[in-house]
Amino acid sequence: MTLIRNEDDIAHALAGSAYHNRAMEAASRIYTETLWLSAGFVRNHIWDILFKDGKTTPLNDIDVIFFNPEQTDPAHEMNIKRQLEDIAPAYPWSVKNQARMHVKNGDPAYHSVDNAMCYWLETVTPIAIRQDRRNRHYLLAPLGIDDLLRGACNPTPHAKSREERLQAYRARMKQKQWWTVWNGVTVNGL
């Protein structure tokens, strides 16, 4: 079993996967934004290693996030998605500018990618990685990686701040049923 103990180990595990490395390389070729690959792109691969003997769980999409308050028109996101599809057409790209997502989510305006991630619902999801043009990898985990490595999904402080957010977390977890996909993963707060 592969030992994953820290952020460097997570980055190394993602870079060591041909599928993940190709996706990160594609995102690094977009020059108009700094793109982060997040959510299930990171979480699922790490859990596949830790709780599924490395067997790959297919991704429904690859969440690509960035922060640009000057380009909040969804057409900008679609342009980036088209560029990614031109580079790597087999990947299920989903591109979101976090500078506009606060409106959809009913939150105060976000200040950065990592600030926006603090408003996500579960602790194991706000983790992102990017690769620069020199193939260096950077991990962003504003709520930490401990729950991810333990396989212990919990509501974020934001999710716990209001009952309707906690209900949204519970509904999302019941729909995802991660404990049925990864043996050893627990979902708390249901």
Characterization of the model:
The protein is of the alpha/beta class and 190 residues long. It has a single domain (7-150), classed as Beta Polymerase, domain 2 (2-Layer Sandwich), CATH 3.30.460. The chain has helices at 7-15, 18-28, 40-51, 74-87, 98-105, 113-117, 146-150, 157-160, 163-176, 178-181, and strands at residues 36-38, 62-66, 93-97, 128-131, 137-140, 152-153, 186-187. A five-stranded mixed beta sheet has the order 3-2-1-4-5. Strands 6-7 form a two-stranded parallel ribbon. Strand 2 (62-66), helix 4 and strand 3 form a beta-alpha-beta unit. It is globular, with a radius of gyration of 16 Å. The model has no long low-confidence stretch (mean pLDDT 96).
Give the SSE layout.
Blueprint lengths: L6 H9 L2 H11 L7 E3 L1 H12 L10 E5 L7 H14 L5 E5 H8 L7 H5 L10 E4 L5 E4 L5 H5 L1 E2 L3 H4 L2 H14 L1 H4 L4 E2 L3
What is the CATH topology classification name?
Answer: Beta Polymerase, domain 2
Percent of sequence in beta strands: 5-15%
- Globally, the shape reads globular
Structural class: alpha/beta
Residue ranges: pLDDT <50 for 5 or more in a row? none
Q: Please provide the count of β strands.
A: 7
